[in-house]
Amino acid sequence: MEPTHEVLEEMRLLRERTPDVRGSVACTVDGLQVACDLPEEIGEQAAALAAALLAMSRRMLIMTQHGAFEETLISGTAGFVAFYAAGPTVVLTVLAGPGANVGLLRLEGRKTAAAVAAVAAPKQ
């Protein structure tokens, strides 16, 4: 199975485990889309923005000496957007509805990010 298909399968499982998840996209830290569970035009834009937010979040953590990046959560009036480190080279972006259980979103988002990291890791 190709890594993109494995990443998409992890995204599908995330939707199953977390009912309020509306979609997700995995991209490289450079903003290149790896896999997308969103409409294509939104996925490409989300990937580019995720890379920019990741860089900014990492810089803030370095500046404040608060460790390595794990996640960023944005809360809006119509839902949530969560960004998770999926290893050193991939970021997972997850969109959830306004009634989402944030604790469950964080738990399942981290679990999915770890699975994506395992798939994206170079095979030796």
From TrEMBL:
InterPro entries: Roadblock/LAMTOR2_dom. Transmembrane segments: none annotated. Residues 8-96 form the Roadblock/LAMTOR2 domain. This is Roadblock/LC7 domain-containing protein. It comes from Nonomuraea bangladeshensis.
